[in-house]
Amino acid sequence: MRIAIVTDSTAYLTPEERERYNIHMIPLSVNLEDGSYEEEVEITSSEFYDKVRNQKQFPKTTQPPVGKFVELFTELSKNYDDVISIHLSSGISGTLQGAMQAGQMVEGINVHVFDSEVSCSPQGFFVIKAAELAQQGATVEQILSTLEEMKSTMDEYFVVDDLAHLQRGGRLSSAAALVGGLLQVKPILTFENKVIVPFEKIRTKKKALRRVEEVFANAVQQHDQLKAVVIHANCEEEGREWMNQLAESYPNVEFSFSYFGPVIGTHLGEGSLGLGWVKKI
Length: 281
Hints:
Layout lengths: L2 E6 L6 H6 L2 E4 L2 E4 L2 E4 L6 H9 L6 E3 L3 H11 L5 E6 L7 H11 L4 E6 L4 H16 L4 H12 L3 E5 L3 H6 L5 H10 L2 E7 L2 E8 L2 H18 L3 E7 L3 H14 L4 E6 L2 H7 L4 E7 L2
Parallel strand pairs: 1-2, 1-6, 6-7, 11-12
Antiparallel strand pairs: 3-4, 3-5, 8-9, 8-13, 9-10, 11-13
C-alpha cells in the first residue's frame, strides 16, 4: 500500500522539507494590484510584504481551484493507492472542501482529507508526521489516528501588530479597530472550533507576548515533551529574539522557526508574531 501526502501552501514547509518527505503541495493565491500570485510558487513572503506596503488596495486571497486537486490526485493515482490530504482549518478557507470534492471526482485512488483546524507551521507538524509514518509503512488508519491524537495537544496563538488588517479582511469591526488603535491594544488570537477568535486584548506587544508565554508554560507543565514553533510576519529579527528567549527558558522543548506567508499574512499583517506547539508523538 503506497500512501501519498498532500498539503496546501499555508503549511509553509520549506522546499527541502517537501522534497525530503515527498510531500505534494497545492498553492493558495493572493490577489494584488498587479495580478494574482500563487504563494510559495510565484511570490515569496518578503516580496509580498514589499508589494503590499506600496499599494492602496487591500489584497485578497483565493483558495485553489478544484481542478488543481483533480489534476494532482489523477497524477498520484498512477503510483499510489491512497492520498492523505491535510489542509488549513475549514473554518477559515474552503481549501479542504475543494480537496474533498476533487477526491470524489478521481477514480483509482482513495483520498482521505484531514482538517488540521489550524494553519501555518502547526499545520506543517501534521503533514511531516503523516509523511514520516507513510515512509515507515504505517497504514492510512494508523496515520489518521496519530494525527487525531496530535490534534488534542495542538495550540497556536498570534499577537497581531496592527488591527487594521483584521478589520479590512472582515475579521474585526471598524469601531473595534479604531478603539484598538487609540488604546494601542494588541489582540492575542487563537483557533477555536476551526475559526480564528480573540483570546485576550493586551495593551502592549511585549505584554501580549508574555501572556502567550504564560499559556505556553502551562502546556509545558502539562505535557512532558513538546515541539514548538515561533512564526513571524516579516519581522525575523524580533521573532528569532523571542524564540531564543523561549529556548533558553524551556530547554526541553524542540523549537523551530517559520513565517506567515502571503495568504495568512494578508489577514494578520506585517509585524505579527505567533507561537504554536504540539506534544511529541
